Amino acid sequence: MSENKQPTIYDVSERAGVSLATVSRVVNNNGKVKEETKRKVLKAIKELNYRPNAMAKGLASSKTTMVGMMVPDLTDLYFAELAQGIDAVAKIYDYSVSLSVSDNNPTAGKEAFETLMSQHVDGIVYIGNKTSQEMFDLLKSSPVPVVFAGSVAQDGKLPSVNIDYVQAFQQAGDILKQHLSDTQIALVDNPGESGLSALRQQGFLKAVSKGKIYESEDDYRSGYNLAHHLLEDGIKGVIVGEDEPAIGILNYMLDNHVKVPADFQIISSNDTKLVKMTRPAISSVTQPEFDIGAVSMRLLTKLMSGDPVDDPTVILPHEFVLKDTTL
Amino acid sequence: MSENKQPTIYDVSERAGVSLATVSRVVNNNGKVKEETKRKVLKAIKELNYRPNAMAKGLASSKTTMVGMMVPDLTDLYFAELAQGIDAVAKIYDYSVSLSVSDNNPTAGKEAFETLMSQHVDGIVYIGNKTSQEMFDLLKSSPVPVVFAGSVAQDGKLPSVNIDYVQAFQQAGDILKQHLSDTQIALVDNPGESGLSALRQQGFLKAVSKGKIYESEDDYRSGYNLAHHLLEDGIKGVIVGEDEPAIGILNYMLDNHVKVPADFQIISSNDTKLVKMTRPAISSVTQPEFDIGAVSMRLLTKLMSGDPVDDPTVILPHEFVLKDTTL
DNA sequence: TTGTAAGCGTTATCAT
DNA sequence: ATGATAACGCTTACAA
User: Fold this and answer.
1) Pairwise CB contact (< 8 Å): B118 & A273
2) Among A48, B23, B81, B90, which residue is least crowded by beta carbons within 10 Å?
């Protein structure tokens, strides 16, 4: 931990024998600079190991090249995979990312947002389920662009990146209907989830008009605890909105000697790496989480630089992988 | 996205009829300010919805109240859980966190570090396996404090937070030795992992002096692919350094009708939520990931404010949960 | 207790 | 093509 303070642009200009302005020009690669001067400056920069001070730059230019990433829970693999995509593209465009775990807590969310505002981030990628109306209003009031990654704003017209949940859940319903009747099929979802659960429900009901709908949280335990109700109600196949509760349901069945998929079928939909790790492996909607994150961040870069954007709500393709929890 | 620019400290001082300095004093709660003046200022702040500009503040005070968090991969649940702990404590101490996914790539790691330096973070929490010597040197040269969370520096004496891996792996070895002989027991680990794998190995060999050691990556597939070698070599029980390869091994056994735990035992050691989700559930070292992250961040706050720190290398307690992959 | 004013390290506008 | 110099919004001696 050496203590010599960082060299400034002033040191560079002195060493290179040019003015501050010129150094700034070569650092930011704008304005005309003679090749030779440029070389001198670059040399001085290298020798001093000069790094521009991001704060000073931000203050002077009112651009921070920093984006905020709001995420409810990093230990939810779906979110983690989105985050990786976001981070990867942020790196490409030289944005740093300020992380804020909002914990699905409205207060924490509000504070996180405030922090991002005082940091003067140039934009925000918002990942969220259970987004409160208050939070939406806050986000809508943002002076910088906001993109919803893997979630939609309630009014459905803020920039966002998702798969076509209506279609996906209709297809999932159709798959279960091949062997089951409507009343034997259920949807298990977390209704708190932004506008997404409404879309899922809509798709589900398109295929399974008399299908029943159960609520669960996003975690393993909720699924496990819900499972016996499903059995009591004569449900023989479920579509689950999140992977962890899907695994909870699966394990309950296994622990209670219910044969999967013979007597109980499961389709999950977040397609995290979890679904490959269970036995039987879980049949699932396949979605490009990484890409959803990546495209969200790319969209944000466009928004931030005022580039034209054809459609701010982008839909990415999904597929199905039918493994061993469906017939 | 309204466009009225943010109010500054100047607007507040004007509205409250006091000087900049006074506003600054009440905002930072230092220096003496008369109760009445304070009230006036607070009122103005509220009315204008004033938020201090973090960059200006950072520039002027050369403190950013921002820490860097370097992590190789967010989709590794062990890291994600550490990150949650770090974030939680950062919030408590009002630090924002600048995220950098280093991807186990030395170049990316170096760039991430550079970015944090130009952001002038006040400190860094480093999470990493496979840390290159170059990266260590870089971290050691940091002008701000660095804490290793869930990993140790090669020379073992930089600030870090971990469990006692030597003891844990010795205990794990002892557990398997209850039903198996030395030559039937193996350690599966990723030797690239900072200094940790050396410690694990050391503990393992203490209990199982003639035990064999296999290398694997940190992912599911590596474990799955390694499994048949274990069988061919007559191994009947393994201790695995990471959960995902442990599950890979487990699933290979299941897929090939090897009875677990009767004919093959497994103990894993990262204790992510994954180990509860398999069937049979995996026996595992139990470690307080969240706390490791939390304590790391807390340690960093002390280091950053120059508080005395008794021992910079802290060891947190671990336990064992023997579920269904051990006899 | 409160105010004045000099930085902090850049960018950006004018000149030259 | 290059250089001065005034911002940017805040903190912090130093004065008052």
Assistant:
1) no
2) A48
Q: CA-CA distance, B206 to B223, in Å (whole number)?
A: 24
Q: Residue A228 belongs to a domain with what CATH number?
A: 3.40.50.2300
Are B111 and A91 inside 8 Å of each other by CB?
A: yes
Q: Confirm if B256 and B224 have CB atoms less than 8 A apart.
A: no
**Mean pLDDT, range A161-178, rounded to an integer:** 96
How many other β-carbons are positioned within 10 Å of the β-carbon of residue A49? 10
Residue among A230, A239, A236, A235 at smallest CA distance from A207: A239
Q: Which of A89, A119, A125 to mutate to test the interface with B (most CBs of B within 10 A)?
A: A119
- The Cα–Cα gap between B213 and B217 comes to 13
Contact B322, B174 (CB under 8 A): no
Query: Strand pairing partners for B125?
Result: B69, B147
Check which CATH number belongs to the domain holding A46 and give it.
Answer: 1.10.260.40
* Closest Cβ–Cβ partner in B118, B142, B278 for A54: B118
Does residue A199 share a domain with residue A274? yes
- Answer whether any strand C atom is within 7 A of the Cβ of A113: no
CB contact under 8 A, A80 and B80: yes
* Domain enclosing residue B37, as ranges: 9-52
Touching B: A residues 1-60, CB under 8 Å? 1-3, 6, 51-56, 58-59
Residue B327 pLDDT:
92
pTM above 0.90, yes or no: yes
Q: Are both B172 and B262 inside the same structural domain?
A: yes
DSSP letter for each residue of B84-146: HHHHHHHHHTT-EEEEEE-TT-HHHHHHHHHHHHHHT-SEEEE--SS--HHHHHHHHT-SS-E
Judge if A247 and A226 occupy the same domain.
Answer: yes
Residue of A51, A140, A220 lying closest to B118 (CB–CB): A51
B109 and B186 co-located in one domain: no
Q: Which tokens in the block code for residue B50? A: 């004033």
B96-113 pLDDT, tens digit per residue, is 999 999 877 888 899 999
Of A89, A40, A52, whose CA–CA distance to A67 is shortest? Answer: A89
For chain B, the domain total comes to: 3
C1' of C12 to CA of A39 (Å): 23
pLDDT at A254: 96
